[in-house]
Amino acid sequence: xxxxxxxxxxxxxxxxxxxxxxxxxxxxxxxxxxxxxxxxxxxxxxxxxxxxxxxxxxxxxxxxxxxxxxxxxxxxxxxxxxxxxxxxxxxxxxxxxxxxxxxxxxxxxxxxxxxxxxxxxxxxxxxxxxxxxxxxxxxxxxxxxxxxxxxxxxxxxxxxxxxxxxxxxxxxxxxxxxxxxxxxxxxxxxxxx
Length: 193
Description:
With 193 residues, this protein is α+β, with helices and mostly antiparallel strands. The chain contains 5 helices and 7 strands. Helix content is 27%, strand content 31%.
């Protein structure tokens, strides 16, 4: 398996991975699968500043991960929100961990310090959502920060949402400025552990 930087030409394959989560789960609170064009626009917006990574096995994309703006204020520049989606049929094969490790490496090189994950949470496990995403992030070193109760409505039922965080850099008095990922992407080996 190889981690690469995504390109807009990957959008169709990424939409197909995401489709399962939209249509069959409450992991995302999105109701409609975005068009390929809309998905490309989302990618362009992320790639203006942050990494958008794909995992490939035998020339097929099996997962993707990216970071996005946490809050649109300068004081939050060192914080990002992370997202990850893996081909549902290939879960628990190490794809997500490899993607997240590469994402962390890229974000550290940008001088990012805080990773934040917004995760849907079941009130009770059901056929659309369980605590697997929360457990997965906890396993990767994220800590629970807070819970919003019954804030997401999908499949005629209510779900909670939690925030988890992980520190990947030092918090200094004179913090290093953020570097846009596109300016350093060629200097980072995403597959070196």
